[in-house]
Amino acid sequence: MTTFWFLSYLLILICLSLLDDGCNKMFVEGLGVNWGTMATHKLPPKTVVKMLQDNGIKKVKLFDADEATMSALAGTDIEVMVAIPNNELLDMNDNDKAKNWVRRNVTRYNFKGGVNVKYVAVGNEPFLTAYNNSFVNLTFPALRNIQNALNDAGLGSSVKATVPMNADVYGSPTDNPVPSAGRFRPDISDQMTQIVQFLHENNAPFTINIYPFLSLYADSHFPVDFAFFDGASQPIMDKDIAYTNVFDANFDTLLSSLKAVGYGDMPIFVGEVGWPTDGDKNGNIGYAQRFYNGLLPKLAQNKGTPLCRGYIEVYLFGLIDEDGKSIAPGNFERHWGIFRFDGQPKFPMDLSGQNDPNKWLVGAQDVKYQPKKWCMLKPGADISDSKKLADNINYACTFSDCTALGYGSSCGGLDGNGNASYAFNMFFQVSDQSPRSCNFQGLATVTDQNISQGTCNFPIQIATSSSWKLLQWSLVFLMPFVLLFI
Ligand SMILES: *[C@@H]1O[C@H](CO)[C@@H](O)[C@H](O)[C@H]1NC(C)=O
Ligand SMILES: *[C@@H]1O[C@H](CO)[C@@H](O)[C@H](O)[C@H]1NC(C)=O
Ligand SMILES: *[C@@H]1O[C@H](CO)[C@@H](O)[C@H](O)[C@H]1NC(C)=O
Ligand SMILES: *[C@@H]1O[C@H](CO)[C@@H](O)[C@H](O)[C@H]1NC(C)=O
Ligand SMILES: *[C@@H]1O[C@H](CO)[C@@H](O)[C@H](O)[C@H]1NC(C)=O
Questions:
Q1: In sequence order, which ranges of 335-468 are alpha helices (DSSP H)?
Q2: Is residue 1 part of a domain?
Q3: Per-residue model confidence as pLDDT tens digits over 328-381
């Protein structure tokens, strides 16, 4: 009798897998996260790995193959995507250098108790129009050399090279009015076709980053509801399919683009998706919560998209806030974490999509902070010289993170004095509270009172290793000279 039930169960499973569209077969289920490390004060990698484990996160995507990170991941079973940064793509066009890279960053960790490397990301959004075609002809040869090196090392069946792409590989929304019209951008369509063909030959996934927040950021007429998952008042009709969110529309535009070049059945990974919590009028906790409250249950229920039902492999962006990231794309860039810079959750979130309070994110443990001291505009300071004040604020914000001060951000409501204190404190914290870093030509003073105001948190940085100290000291020593010349 048991055998009968077992066989029926098996049969059902087989039928279900046949029903699957094919765009998402073959993977172990579960959410991954992007672990970026562009922070001035990094949590120790071991602390982060413990945090991943405590939260049941079994997959990470890195932006390099940093030794300290890799050794912290060693011996865990966490699946890892290591990465080759764009500025190394040229080197990877050289076959020997590619072989060497694979040896040093993949093969080296391939032993029992090593690192479970499953993917190599070759470049990061190399075809972004902002890069002026710098990587257009470098990406495919690099991908080919890396996968071939993996194959030669005997790792080809377990480690796949892929290229995380930005959604602009299929042009602007006006180029693709409906998802079924999706095509790759004409200027890169040859390169895209080569890449897709090669990925397919090697059973490797296509990786796409999807950012509903950026759709909203880029276009003030973008319907807000369409960025989230709770239904849109004006769905986009694509023949008989109603699209109610831009995530689905974006994913299916890719699927149509792949179909158009003959590979509609490729596995697709979402390499990055998430919502920032500060640094823009739409970057806040409320919207981030609304976004994840829609995304996570949708993923957990394997709803897929209209053209690709079933499980989708997804890596959230990102794990921890990074106060050292470039803000060229916008102030929000430093606020993508589901955890703050210190590894504490920003808001309750259940990654399994069940909204179960027992599964809410748990913070990093044993985090070491600097003392509870803040730097502020000295009460009664002579601020009649407005240029002097502005120059000092400017200096502080050049070398620390003031992105929360912008319009609509968490500290956007501060008055001029509050602004100055915020800037001074951020510089003081990033300088590890060295006493000289809270002077600003006599305008600033240290306090042990928490000077946070309303929604604006004046943070205390975490304690850091010595590697940053030299840079910090030089900044502090340089300050009087730099100010002399502004
Ligand atoms: C690859 O490994 C080498 C040797 O450990 C290291 O120096 C290099 O930074 C690694 N590459 C990346 C992108 O992390
Ligand atoms: C791309 O070109 C623009 C305009 O010529 C320039 O301002 C920008 O710095 C360039 N970006 C890169 C990454 O080369
Ligand atoms: C890439 O290569 C093609 C074919 O060789 C060439 O026509 C094109 O100008 C190159 N593009 C860039 C940006 O170098
Ligand atoms: C505070 O600083 C921000 C960012 O530098 C600026 O946009 C804003 O106008 C300032 N507000 C006041 C009241 O000075
Ligand atoms: C300072 O006060 C804010 C707002 O009350 C609070 O969120 C924050 O945790 C406090 N910081 C410290 C270091 O106690």
A1: 386-398, 416-430
A2: no
A3: 999 999 999 999 999 999 999 999 999 999 999 999 999 999 999 999 999 999
